[in-house]
Write a structure and sequence with these properties.
Length: 184
C-alpha cells in the first residue's frame, strides 16, 4: 500500500487498524531527511529536518525538556512545524516565548512519556484521553473529512504526518501547537 495516498475511512475499517496510518494526510515518506530518524533521538531528528526552528528554539529555552527528549524514552511527541507556529498571534507568541515557565508547560503538553504510540495505537485510543508529560489530558479523536477521508486529531490539532520513528520514540507532526489551559 502506498503510504502517501489517502485511504477512505471505510477502507480503513475493512482493512483494520493497521491501514489507518495511510489515512492521515501527508503520511511520512521513507526517503529524505526524516528517513534516518530511527537512528537519531527526537531532538536531532527535528534538527535534521529544518522546518522546526521555532520548536527547537523553545526547547533550547526549556533546557530540561530538551535534555529529556535526548534521553532514553520512549516518548510520543506531537510537534508543530514553523508554519503551524505562525497560526498563533505574534503578540501572544512573543509573550509565550518570553515566559520560560509557560513555554515549558506548552511544550511538555505535546509529549507523552513512557509510550511509543504509533498511529495504529492512537487510532485505537480515539474517543479517549492520554496524559501529557505536562500532566493534563489530550483528547484523541478521529473524524471523517470530505469524501470520508479519515483524519486524526489531538484536541483541535490535526496530524499532518504520522509515525516518524526515532531512536527514543516517535514524532507526529501537527498543524497547530497543542495548547493546554495555562496555569495562572
Amino acid at each position: 500500500m502506498n503510504v502517501g495516498k489517502l485511504v477512505k475511512l471505510g477502507a480503513c475499517a475493512a482493512l483494520g487498524a493497521i491501514s489507518v496510518c495511510a489515512a492521515f494526510s501527508k503520511a511520512p515518506t521513507t526517503s529524505g531527511p526524516m528517513s534516518t530518524a530511527s537512528k537519531q533521538d527526537i531532538i536531532n531528528t527535528l534538527r535534521s529536518k529544518g522546518s522546526f526552528h521555532k520548536m527547537l528554539k523553545g526547547l533550547e529555552q526549556t533546557y530540561e525538556l530538551d535534555k529529556e527528549l535526548k534521553g532514553k524514552g520512549p516518548y510520543t511527541v506531537f510537534v508543530a512545524d514553523d508554519k503551524a507556529w505562525k497560526k498563533i498571534n505574534q503578540a501572544d507568541l512573543h509573550t509565550l516565548f518570553g515566559n520560560r515557565q509557560k513555554l515549558d508547560e506548552v511544550l511538555r503538553y505535546g509529549v507523552i512519556k513512557g509510550q511509543n504510540l504509533n498511529c495504529d495505537q492512537l487510532y485505537k485510543l480515539q474517543g479517549q484521553q492520554v496524559q501529557s508529560l505536562e500532566g493534563r489530558l489530550i483528547e484523541v479523536r478521529m473524524t471523517a473529512g470530505e469524501k470520508e477521508q479519515a483524519f486524526l486529531f489531538l484536541n483541535d490539532s490535526k496530524v499532518k504526518k504520522a509515525d516518524i520513528k526515532c531512536s527514543n520514540g516517535i514524532i507526529h507532526i501537527v498543524d497547530a501547537p497543542l495548547m493546554p489551559p495555562l496555569k495562572k
